[in-house]
Specification:
The complex is a heterodimer. Chain A is α+β, with helices and mostly antiparallel strands. Chain A contains four helices and ten strands. Classes of the chains: A alpha+beta, B alpha/beta. The complex binds thiamine diphosphate.
């Protein structure tokens, strides 16, 4: 199963860092019946603002309407809609994985192949928690590979993205 | 420099409203907003005590429609906030500038299911242009400043400010601060575009000069932009026919030879048909509402579209325009007029006299019409509106409720001046007219204000006539008593095989005259057409009290023309007396286009045969 469909739209919003802004943004999308695939939000280097990365599964025409409506929100300052080909994007995953004495070395080689950090290891119980960062497609792939050993729990951050250097993406800006 | 004034949140709120130039607040007190009602006693503001919070909201809207200034209402938390939800939604859909202040439980109680607590900002998020939950007393002046700025600029709309009780509590030391009135609100995400780019204006004008069958499709945005005078200039410059939507009646004079009246579900046939046949539709502050377009896929099928709107999100929402002009309607039209001269117009404009002749042909054949009451029959609502119109001053402000009476008023009152027609277009809120009329009259005390109301609508908000009587706001109400939910009746007659379900209101219960008198109004009842003029004149002569005139109307009158919900505008029904003629014309037209089509199909066939043989 491929969780990160290339047809999905990635929106990058710069918003005022105020109470209720996230609710306004997600409400507007939910109200139209569209599902948010992933959502990541955190303050920028300037604490007055936050950046939100939203991945939604919407056709192009309603997407344009959603972008325009989002832009009408008073606290939204800037929106870029970035096609996957024009974006640098990353995702982080934490996974609790079980293994056996027999397959540990296989697990180690899977982990070595991806940029994985082992954060906790409980040898006695044959389990560990790892973190892995990469493109969402890479994370999908790693998750599939880990499935062979046994994923006990997984938490992904959802995609964060910035436009690629030198790529101009459609952007709406209040000033 | 004088030392800053130390005020508590309540005093600061009142002072902020005064600094915004607010003259009147429509409101109702209660627990959470009580601390604000104390300094209100000494304020320069007029407070109008309503009888239901919904009334406060619609009064603020009526005031805003009539004056162009933001309407202000103030109510307490919980049930009062939920009572004002309808007017907020109404103001949102009709882009009415309004500021609504609601009390809230103290900050420490928020989220505890406290007495009269509700999530006001959550509930109203999608029906306000923006809303605020204030969390520090010293933020009050800045938030009020922002609220008025947002409500009145760009695309206007309602803004709600929710203020927890502890921030306005005179006994709370933390509610006190040094009052500062910020000059410019800091809103990094808000920058409405007023002036469109030169290029789109040039593109628009090029299309206008080339169009053979242009129609100016004017919406409420022209009124919001105070653009009626410029519209007249633009329309006359290129002799373009004009239709005015339900929200724009009066933006262009109905008596003008270029005016075709209202388009849409109950619009004039000529207005509907001109749009359908046009090759260029210039949407000016209008938004392709489904009540105007009918079935979208068959709406104005031959037309290129120029869409002028201050809200870019309207561009392409329903119909993708060839030229999207993002900007204020008045400014855009001023630029167009200059650009027309620059491009050599109007001299080089395509000759549109054949189009104008075609349009006036429709006007002659399919005017608005109705049958007068037969002897012994009750009144015809259309006739009542005509007499009201002719016997009232030309600048009378007319408000209406929602239903058949609304459509009849929009059709038969000839609106020749902007800001004389006030109704609930987008939300279609029954009960709008009486409170809206009170708000309009409060803002325009020297004008005559008639509320045309249905008997169903009247029963929803009539109690505000007590407000009108006590506050000496002498509006007049034309109560069109057809003893039915007439508009619902019409749909059941036409689309549900005359199976009438839950539409009878009763002719005599309530006794409207007694009810009106008990609320401090003068009251009349008319059921005979011959008494009409006399009673209207008597009502118009009363200035010291509100007046209610109960007009007893026939119960089975239908509104025509009509485009059935979801049907194509090209299938509009006209008055039954005109329908046979229209059907015959349509059949002839279909026949001739079938012949042309089969002729061209023959030639296509010939072409493809050639293709095969070669
Ligand atoms: C608050 C509200 N409830 C219901 C409706 C649906 N509705 C639209 S018109 C109408 C009938 C209005 O009856 P009345 O006020 O008597 O006016 P008439 O159509 O008879 O002129 C109804 C029920 C509405 N528009 N608003």
């Amino acid at each position: 199963m491929n969780r990160t469909d290339l047809q999905h739209h990635t929106l990058i919003l710069l918003v005022e860092n105020r109470a209720g802004v996230l609710a306004r943004v997600t409400d507007l999308i939910a109200r139209r019946g569209y599902n948010i695939i992933s959502l990541a939000v955190a303050p920028t280097n300037d604490e007055r603002f936050s950046r939100i990365t939203i991945v939604v599964n919407v056709d192009l025409a309603p997407m344009e309407q959603i972008v325009k409506q989002l832009f009408k929100l008073i606290n939204v300052i800037e929106i870029a809609e970035v096609p996957a080909s024009d974006a640098v994007s990353r995702e982080l995953m934490l996974a609790k994985v079980s293994f056996t004495a027999d397959n540990l070395s296989d697990l180690e080689s899977v982990m070595a192949g991806a940029s994985v950090h082992v954060l906790e290891l409980e040898r006695s119980k044959d389990r560990l928690i790892l973190s892995a960062g990469g493109s969402s497609a890479n994370i999908d792939e790693l998750e599939d590979q880990l499935g062979v050993f046994g994923i006990m729990d997984v938490q992904r951050t959802g995609q964060i993205a910035l436009p690629q250097l030198g790529h101009s993406v459609p952007i709406m800006r209040a000033r | 420099m004088t030392a800053p004034e130390r005020l508590n949140g309540a005093q600061a709120l009142i002072k902020s409203l005064e600094l915004e130039g607010v003259e009147v607040v429509f409101g109702y007190p209660g627990g959470a907003i009580l601390p604000v009602y104390d300094p209100l006693i000494d304020a320069k503001l007029r407070h109008v005590l309503v009888r239901h919070e919904q009334g406060a909201g619609h009064m603020a809207e009526g005031y805003a429609h009539a004056t162009g200034k933001p309407g202000v209402c103030m109510v307490t938390s919980g049930p009062a906030a939920t009572n004002i939800v309808t007017p907020l939604a109404d103001a949102m859909l009709d882009s009415v500038p309004m500021v609504c202040i609601t009390g809230q439980v103290s900050l420490s109680a928020i989220g505890t299911d406290a007495f009269q607590e509700c999530d006001t900002t959550g509930i109203t998020r999608s029906i306000t242009k923006h809303n605020y939950l204030v969390t520090r007393a010293e933020d009050i002046p800045g938030v009020i400043r922002e609220a008025f700025h947002l409500a009145t600029t760009g695309r206007p709309g309602p803004v709600l400010v929710d203020i927890p009780k502890n921030l306005v509590d005179a006994n709370n030391p933390e509610a006190y601060f040094d009052f500062v009135w910020p000059e410019v609100p800091e809103l990094p995400g808000y920058n409405p575009i007023l002036t469109p780019g030169d290029e789109v204006i040039a593109d628009a004008v090029t299309l206008m000069l080339q169009a053979e069958r242009p129609v100016l499709y004017v919406g409420g945005g022209v009124l919001k932009a105070r653009g009626a005078a410029v519209l007249l200039e633009l329309a006359e410059l290129l002799s373009m026919p004009v239709v005015t939507t339900l929200m724009a009646r009066g933006a262009f004079p109905d008596s003008h030879e270029l005016c075709l009246g209202m388009p849409g579900m109950h619009g004039q046939f000529t207005a509907i048909n001109a749009i359908q046949e046009s090759d260029l539709l210039i949407a000016m502050g209008s938004r392709f509402d489904d009540r105007v377009t009918g079935k979208v896929s068959t709406f104005a099928p031959h037309a290129k579209v120029i869409h002028v709107d201050i809200d870019p999100a309207e561009h392409g929402k329903v119909r993708v325009p060839q030229v999207a002009v993002a900007g204020d309607c008045r400014i855009s039209m001023e630029l167009m007029i200059k650009e027309i001269a620059k491009q050599g117009g109007p001299e080089n404009q395509v000759d549109i006299t054949p189009w104008r002749q075609q349009v006036s042909g429709w006007q002659e054949k399919y005017p608005l019409t109705y049958q007068q009451s037969k002897a012994g029959e009750l009144l015809k609502p259309q006739h009542v509106i005509e007499r009201l119109r002719d016997l009232s001053p030309e600048d009378t402000i007319v408000c209406s409720g929602v239903g058949q009476h609304q459509m009849f008023t929009s059709q038969y009152w000839k609106f020749d001046h902007p800001y004389t027609w006030i109704n609930s277009g987008g939300l279609g809120t029954m009960g709008f007219s009486i409170p809206a009329a009170i708000g309009a009259k409060a803002g325009m005390p020297n004008r005559m204000v008639w509320a045309v109301d249905g008997d169903g609508c009247f029963q929803m908000t009539a109690q505000e006539l007590i407000t009108a009587a006590i506050e000496k706001i002498p509006i007049k109400v034309a109560l069109m008593n057809n003893s039915n939910l007439g508009m619902v009746r019409q749909w059941q007659e036409m689309f549900y095989g005359e199976r009438f379900s839950e539409i009878h209101l009763g002719r005599d219960l309530p006794n409207y005259v007694m009810w009106a008198e008990s609320m401090g109004c003068a009251a009349f009842r008319v059921d005979d057409p011959s008494e009409l003029d006399e009673v209207i004149e008597a009502a118009n002569a009363i200035n010291d009290r509100p007046v209610v005139v109960e007009f007893r109307c026939v119960e089975d009158e239908n509104v025509f023309p009509m485009v059935s919900a979801g049907a194509s505008n090209s299938d509009a029904l006209v008055d039954p007396s005109q329908q046979a003629m229209l059907d015959a014309e349509r059949a002839a037209k279909a026949e001739s286009s079938r012949q042309t089509a089969s002729a061209s199909a023959d030639s296509v066939l010939a072409d493809s045969n050639e293709g095969v043989s070669s």
